[in-house]
Design brief:
By secondary structure, the chain is mainly beta. It is built from two helices and eight strands. The strands form three sheets. A four-stranded mixed β-sheet has the order 2-1-6-5, covered by helices on one side. β3 and β4 form a beta hairpin. The radius of gyration is 14 Å and the shape is globular.
């Protein structure tokens, strides 16, 4: 990706931008993670998702250890250029719990409810 395009992304004070990952075929929202300029560049160059781990303060390649690689179909940017939508074909679970999507629970008056 050209440097001037990367500079148009509005990163937060920590240099991060939220990235919503969605299944390109079903439109199911799989996960939300953060990207910095380097992980976005790697995502575009490799065609697989890369993110910035806030807890480990390092880049991570989704599926590198689990095998659940996410192949990028398209990266979109919202109207304010402060959120990304990454459309993928996913080789397996997106969630570290083993669930297909990180959004497998709903909020119920009595607490979280598994879908």
């Amino acid at each position: 990706m050209k440097e001037e395009l990367l500079s148009e992304i509005k990163y937060d004070a920590s240099g991060l931008v939220p990235a919503i990952v969605q299944d390109a075929e079903t439109n199911q929202v799989l996960m939300m993670a953060y990207m910095n300029a380097e992980s976005l560049q790697l995502t575009i160059e490799t065609g697989e998702t890369w993110f910035w781990s806030r807890s480990r303060s390092e880049l991570w390649h989704k599926g590198a250890t689990s095998g659940n690689i996410q192949t990028v179909v398209e990266v979109r940017v919202d109207c304010d250029a402060d959120t990304l939508l990454v459309l993928v074909n996913s080789a397996g679970a997106a969630c570290h719990t083993g669930a297909r999507s990180c959004f497998y629970r709903s909020v119920d008056p009595k607490g979280f409810k598994n879908l």
